[in-house]
Structure formats: structure tokens, C-alpha cells
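Subgroup meeting minutes
Present: P.N., E.W., G.H.
Scribe: E.W.

1. P.N. recapped why we're keeping a running log of single-chain structure predictions: easier to compare across weeks, and new members can see raw inputs and outputs side by side.
2. G.H. added today's entry (143 aa).
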Amino acid sequence: MKKIILLLCLASMLSCCSCGLFGARKYVCEVENVDSIQIVRLDQYIEEELRYEYTVLSQIVDCEAFVSELNEVEHSVNWGDPRQMDIGYVVIKINYINGDFDLLHPDAQCFHRSGKNQYGYFFFDDAAFNLLISNNTGDGSLC
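Output recorded in log:
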């Protein structure tokens, strides 16, 4: 009986893994929903209002090209507790038409949806992510 239960557990786990249930999460930004994109530095978190104060370092002009590059940055999923944003992080802030926004850092994310913050589970490739930020803060393609 124990062997049958063990085999059923193993079969269900393999079935879930093969259908992508455990590893299929992927960060994708849909450019048609984007209002604006900024590179910002987080200055303070105001707990009572559940929001960050930040300094805008640059404004992305060509959102479509930027989102295309962002969606190509390699990343993996962290299945542990999500990291929260730290003060001083330089992050990508994607503002959506409906008022929601994403704050993206290679090791931590904040997704603001319907007035509530949700923290992300993604680890972006540090070098590629930082290159994307540096390429869009000093080459004249920004406001």
C-alpha cells in the first residue's frame, strides 16, 4: 500500500513538472498597457500609505523598444519568500494606463495592483538588467 501511495505521489509530481505548473512563471511586460517608464531611485517607504517616495533619474522615450529589451532579460523564479525593495535601489518603474505600476530590480520587485503592493519572485540577470538601465540613462535617448 505504501508503495502505491509513493508511486502515485511521484507520478503526480512528474505530471505537474512536465506541464510547467512549477516553473512556467515568467515576467512579461505588455507594451500596449504601458503609460510611461522611468528609471528611479527609491528614497523612502511610507508604511502608512503603502508607497515609495523616489527620485526620477530618467524618463524612457521609446517605451516599445525598452519593453522589448526588458522582456529579453534572462530571469528565474524564486519559490521562497519574496524580497522587498530596499531604500537606495535604482529600479525601473513601469506605469500602466489603469494606474497600476511595477518597480523592478534584479533581486526584488513590487507590483502595485488595485491599491495594494505585491512583491515579486523573480531574479533577473544582474549584468543584463544593469546594462539595460545604464544604456537608457546616458545615451541621449531619454528626456
